[in-house]
Amino acid sequence: MNTLLKNIANLIKVKTIVTIIILWVFAELALRGDISADNVTIIVSSVIAFYFGTQHEKKIEKKEE
Question: Are 40 and 27 a contacting pair, CB within 8 Å?
Fold first, then answer.
């Protein structure tokens, strides 16, 4: 149960909220046809790679301590 609460708390972090909002905005723009699907793919891939890259770095730093 304690692990579940920690995971929920991690989801509420600002970086996670910003990532979800960015993904939603670009998906919405693509569905409207305001930007091309290629641009959405590049932007969303960059955001996801950055998000998961920083998460991976944090895990490595915690293991080294």
Answer: yes
User: Which H, E and C letters describe 4-56, residue by residue?
Assistant: HHHHHHHHCCHHHHHHHHHHHHHHHHHHHCCCCHHHHHHHHHHHHHHHHHHHH
Within a 10 A sphere around the Cβ of 3, how many other Cβ atoms? 7
List the structure tokens of 29: 């723009």
Tally of CB atoms within 10 A around 19: 17
Give 3-62 pLDDT, tens digit per residue. 888 777 777 777 778 878 888 888 888 889 888 878 888 888 888 888 778 776 676 766
